[in-house]
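Recap from last week: sequence in, structure out.
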Amino acid sequence: MRKLSKQFAGWLLTLVMVLTMVPLVGTPVYADAPTGYESYTEWTNGNSLPTEAGDYYLTQDVTFSGTWTVPSGAAINLCLNDHVITGAISVERYGTLDLYDCNNTTERRYNIDSDLHRGVIADDGEYSFTGGYITNSNGGGVVAHGNFNMHGGTIFGCNGNGVELINGYGVFGQLNMDGGNIIGNGNGGIRANAGQSAVNISGNSLVKHNYANNGGGIFAQTLTISGGTISENTAESGGGGIFTQGDVNIQNATISGNHSKGTGGNNGGGGVLCTGNLTMTNVTITGNDSTFLGGGVFCTKNLTMTDVTITGNKASSGGGGICEFPGKTVALNGNMQITGNTNTAGTESSNLYFFSNSSATGGITIGSGLDTDASIGVSYNSNVQVVSSAF
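Predicted structure tokens:
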């Protein structure tokens, strides 16, 4: 009898252990907070998202119709935690949203329902995106007249712009991108319509495979690039990679494989079309093409370059590498390589080409720091003079 009691006690103990390990049917089980985010509040609702300020992590996928709005003045940090959000997001004026995947063990997406016009709207608020995906919007991925800070993640496959900056409440949107990817969007990668909207790109940022009428990769008034790659974008008219209407500074970047398909007027510029002053340092521009002028670069104002390589680009008319407007100056410094560019018209205007139908005089300024190994091919259809020389 005592032996049976001992056996029964053992069975009972085993049963208790099993029951404590297996949840009851119908009882939801939530994962522990991701490491490093134990102070965050778990969000367990699968049909909505928080509207009060605070730090949250998801415990399950969330799907909702309509738009989740971050209220004015609220600061919300939301960790996807390997989960998916399906719905649209609006950040009201003075609101702040930081959306990221703090437990990035698998690829997860912030999905946009196909019938929604915008993915994220930052109404003069501040929105930060660090990980995950913004995709499938019928309109743009992110529309901001506040600040949009992109530190990682991917915006792709939207029918509109990947990121669009606009003017609202007298405030101009600003993009600060130091990481992540903007890929395959149907109305351009980045578009800054408002004149005072600023685009700042750095780090390992990638803008690729986007399409637009002007500025396939980037269309902007104020643009600063200090790192990243702009590649394989297409413009139906001008600026396959970049179209800018103001002064531009580009450093430590690669602009490659972009296409400009327009002819005549303000078209051209397979890699870059700039109607302001353009300054470039340590930039590689290669494999771009234009069906008009400037396979690599088409610049209508002054151009300053240091340690820039422009090679393997192609234009149908003139300036396979660079086409410069009449009466403007090109300043060359450091290790400049402007060679190996082609012109499908079969003329000599294939590398650095000064285009003009007037008597205006353009100039080449050779800086004192120009390397003796520099190689630059020059051709012209206007008056060109060497303004100063290092030799």
